[in-house]
Amino acid sequence: MRPDGVLTTVDQEPEHQQSARQAFREAGFAGNRARFIPGPGHWTCCPRLADSGYDLVFCDGDRQEYQDYLAESLRLLRPLEAWSPSKASSRTDAPWTPGPQPTEVLRLRELVRAVRESQELVSSLLPVGDGLLCAVKR
Ligand SMILES: C[S@@+](CC[C@H](N)C(=O)[O-])C[C@H]1O[C@@H](n2cnc3c(N)ncnc32)[C@H](O)[C@@H]1O
User: Fold this and answer.
1) Share of residues in the chain with pLDDT > 90 (%)
2) pLDDT tens digits, 29-70
3) Mean confidence (pLDDT) of the chain
4) Pfam family example for this protein (predicted)?
5) pTM to 2 decimal places
6) Could you give phi then psi for residue 3, rounded to 5 degrees?
7) For a substitution probing ligand 1, which of 37, 56, 62 has the most ligand atoms within 8 Å of its CB?
């Protein structure tokens, strides 16, 4: 982050928020460099976040909600900034697997397709860990 940047983090587990708060403090960040919002992501917190107020959105929560986060992220991001859900390719690259696919896999495939076909995004799927889907807002 740039020196005047502020990180906003949303998590529904208070003890995870507490761990994050402690980690930032131990890393030497001043208290006013991070904002901690408790609660489930998309329906309580995201509407409170300012339009075009963010340089980067990183999603690492419930993968079945990533489509909702994508729509919210496009509202939150400044043009030419990045959006990145984690582990977006996980198990999505084996469509030949016989039998019904788990809902999570189907949702992630829809997400990858929506990002790839979006006129607002330039995307890349990085071979990092389980796969990292990244996109820059045009
Ligand atoms: C994989 S962990 C995040 C790990 C973190 N990114 C890291 O690298 O240490 C997923 C987190 O998302 C939170 N989470 C899951 N679903 C959520 C939701 N709908 N709203 C808010 N937080 C959620 C969980 O409480 C958990 O802390």
Assistant:
1) 38
2) 999 999 998 888 776 667 778 999 999 999 888 888 888 888
3) 84
4) Methyltransf_3
5) 0.81
6) -55, -30
7) 62
Domains of the chain as residue ranges with CATH: 40-92+100-137 (3.40.50.150)
Task: Pick the residue whose CA is nearest to atom 1 on ligand 1.
Answer: 60
Tokens 């400044």 correspond to: 78
